[in-house]
Amino acid sequence: MAHEQYQDYITPLLTEFNTKLRDIEEKQRLLKDRVLLIGTNLVEMREEMGKDLTDLKVQSEQAKQDILKIRETLQRLAEELENRARRAEIDLIKRQFKIFEPLKLARLEDVERMINEKLNK
Fold first, then answer.
1. What residues does each domain of the chain span?
2. pTM value?
3. Distance separating alpha carbons of residues 18 and 29, to the nearest angstrom
């Protein structure tokens, strides 16, 4: 009878232990699945980030080349502009030339002749 009492006492304990063990195994299985999923996601993210990084490097290099071309073009334009007379300077020279207009200046002889012609009339 002691053996039966002992067995009656142990059976519920073993049942509870089995239930807890199954719960722990289930939690462990779920945790394992989650870890595998996280690992897979990390690998995919790493591949995507690697691809994105490569694309950014290519775009960065292209932008660098474009900037160098623009810089060279601007430098050539600046050198050309330095070698050409500015429009304002040309306009100033034109105005000064119009003021002077050497072809319209009268010679002293011409002025004397015009005076004499007027006086003789």
1. 2-120
2. 0.47
3. 16
